[in-house]
């Protein structure tokens, strides 16, 4: 009896544990998951500063300046970024200032360079109305004691910059789960070998390696094993330090479907054997000593969809993320889907927005063993269980193949 997808997801997520944490140099932390709460120990900006090159002035003194009624001031100093003014700006004076430099004492505004004319040390102000707004105030973005980043945050470019600004040279991040990948089947050969009659190259391991890395894991490729229980076990034993072992092939019912025998001989406790989805119904999941073992179909499309729905959320949880699911939206079928279905079906699709709303077009090649449609897909259309063929114009649920 095949489990409901949601039940299988709950079982796997309940089995998975969040990885421990490690400190890493900041330059290695892009796309890692933060394992600590980061609190600002200072205001940011840490001082009032200039957002532009120009002249620090007393704003009230120049607010009425215009080309036909300019205000002339005496330049007293030049303050570059990284230096501090020695003089105080007083009525009748201005201080040359560069972007990022601290506002000098006495100044209450900045005039941009383009609104001035300079002759010697006399500065002619020809537009002064916005001077008071041209200051980045201390603490206007972040105040000391403010929580800036929380555990579970994926460190993107913005977070990298903020961690640097706050002096976090070695943030605490979650260790990435280690995932071993192996393809089984006497017909499978390595990717660098020439094809001979009856053989196919190992595409599954490379497809899944990309999916593992996108989900925050690190990959160990175990290679290929022929249809032999002991040969499969020998390869799996090379992954002793991995947290998850994934095999493709040998998971469905047949004379050469051996993963069940492998699990039994290795002492892996079986969690479930089939999941009610298409493609990808044959999924054998088990656990031994806190290590997950998952056997997926050898058909590429089936393996990819099963991974997407069952393994990806587990890896996201293990890697410390707080969101485990793809964004879900409602869209209108831009083309018919001509198959009826028993189990819930996931269909590779192209999704886009136009003036009428969000549209989704199922891609043409959807067979269990077909990969080509996955190249162009940016979404998965969900076909409900026991659904008849769906005409164009039907509203459907869509999983967007982007991170939440």
TrEMBL record:
<dbReference type="InterPro" id="IPR005110">
    <property type="entry name" value="MoeA_linker/N"/>
</dbReference>
<keyword id="KW-0460">Magnesium</keyword>
<comment type="similarity">
    <text>Belongs to the MoeA family.</text>
</comment>
<dbReference type="InterPro" id="IPR036425">
    <property type="entry name" value="MoaB/Mog-like_dom_sf"/>
</dbReference>
<dbReference type="InterPro" id="IPR038987">
    <property type="entry name" value="MoeA-like"/>
</dbReference>
<comment type="function">
    <text>Catalyzes the insertion of molybdate into adenylated molybdopterin with the concomitant release of AMP.</text>
</comment>
<dbReference type="InterPro" id="IPR036135">
    <property type="entry name" value="MoeA_linker/N_sf"/>
</dbReference>
<dbReference type="Pfam" id="PF00994">
    <property type="entry name" value="MoCF_biosynth"/>
</dbReference>
<dbReference type="GO" id="GO:0061599">
    <property type="term" value="F:molybdopterin molybdotransferase activity"/>
</dbReference>
<dbReference type="GO" id="GO:0006777">
    <property type="term" value="P:Mo-molybdopterin cofactor biosynthetic process"/>
</dbReference>
<dbReference type="InterPro" id="IPR001453">
    <property type="entry name" value="MoaB/Mog_dom"/>
</dbReference>
<dbReference type="InterPro" id="IPR005111">
    <property type="entry name" value="MoeA_C_domain_IV"/>
</dbReference>
<keyword id="KW-0479">Metal-binding</keyword>
<dbReference type="GO" id="GO:0046872">
    <property type="term" value="F:metal ion binding"/>
</dbReference>
<feature type="domain" description="MoaB/Mog">
    <location>
        <begin position="180"/>
        <end position="317"/>
    </location>
</feature>
<dbReference type="Pfam" id="PF03453">
    <property type="entry name" value="MoeA_N"/>
</dbReference>
<comment type="pathway">
    <text>Cofactor biosynthesis; molybdopterin biosynthesis.</text>
</comment>
<dbReference type="GO" id="GO:0005829">
    <property type="term" value="C:cytosol"/>
</dbReference>
<dbReference type="Pfam" id="PF03454">
    <property type="entry name" value="MoeA_C"/>
</dbReference>
<protein>
    <recommendedName>
        <fullName>Molybdopterin molybdenumtransferase</fullName>
        <ecNumber>2.10.1.1</ecNumber>
    </recommendedName>
</protein>
<keyword id="KW-0501">Molybdenum cofactor biosynthesis</keyword>
<keyword id="KW-0808">Transferase</keyword>
<keyword id="KW-0500">Molybdenum</keyword>
<dbReference type="InterPro" id="IPR036688">
    <property type="entry name" value="MoeA_C_domain_IV_sf"/>
</dbReference>
């Amino acid at each position: 009896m095949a489990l409901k997808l949601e039940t299988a997801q709950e079982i796997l997520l309940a089995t998975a544990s969040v990885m421990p944490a490690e400190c890493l140099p900041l330059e290695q932390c892009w796309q890692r998951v933060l394992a600590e709460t980061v609190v600002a120990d200072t205001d940011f900006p840490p001082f009032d500063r200039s957002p532009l090159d120009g002249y620090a002035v007393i704003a009230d003194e120049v607010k009425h300046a215009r080309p036909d009624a300019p205000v002339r001031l005496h330049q007293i100093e030049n303050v570059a970024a990284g230096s501090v003014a020695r003089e105080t700006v007083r009525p009748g004076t201005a201080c040359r200032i560069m972007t990022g430099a601290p506002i000098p004492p006495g100044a209450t505004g900045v005039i941009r360079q383009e609104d001035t004319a300079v002759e010697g040390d006399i500065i002619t102000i020809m537009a002064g109305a916005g001077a008071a707004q041209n200051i980045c105030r201390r603490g206007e973005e972040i105040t000391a004691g403010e929580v800036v980043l929380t555990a579970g945050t994926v460190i993107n470019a913005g977070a990298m910059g903020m961690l640097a600004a706050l002096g976090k040279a070695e943030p605490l991040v979650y260790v990435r789960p280690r995932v071993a990948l192996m393809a089984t089947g006497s017909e499978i050969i390595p990717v660098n070998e020439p094809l001979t009659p009856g053989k196919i190259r190992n595409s599954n391991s490379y497809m899944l390696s990309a999916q593992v890395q996108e989900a925050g894991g690190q990959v160990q490729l175990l290679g290929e094993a022929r249809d032999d229980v002991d040969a499969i076990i020998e390869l799996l034993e090379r992954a002793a330090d991995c947290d998850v072992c994934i095999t493709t092939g040998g998971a469905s019912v047949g004379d050469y479907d051996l993963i069940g025998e492998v699990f039994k001989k290795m002492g892996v406790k079986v969690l479930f054997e089939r999941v009610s989805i298409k493609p990808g119904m044959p999924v054998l999941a088990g656990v031994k000593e806190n290590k997950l073992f998952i056997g997926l179909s050898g058909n590429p499309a089936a393996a990819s969809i099963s991974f997407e729905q069952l393994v990806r959320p587990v890896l996201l949880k293990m890697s410390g993320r707080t969101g485990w699911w793809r964004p879900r939206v409602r869209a209108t079928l831009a083309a018919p889907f001509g198959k009826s279905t028993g189990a819930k079906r996931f269909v590779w699709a192209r999704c886009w927005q136009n003036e009428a709303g969000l549209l989704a077009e199922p891609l043409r090649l959807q067979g269990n063993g077909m990969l080509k449609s996955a190249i162009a897909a940016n979404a998965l259309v969900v076909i409900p269980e026991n659904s008849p063929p769906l005409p164009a114009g039907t509203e459907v649920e869509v999983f967007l193949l982007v991170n939440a």
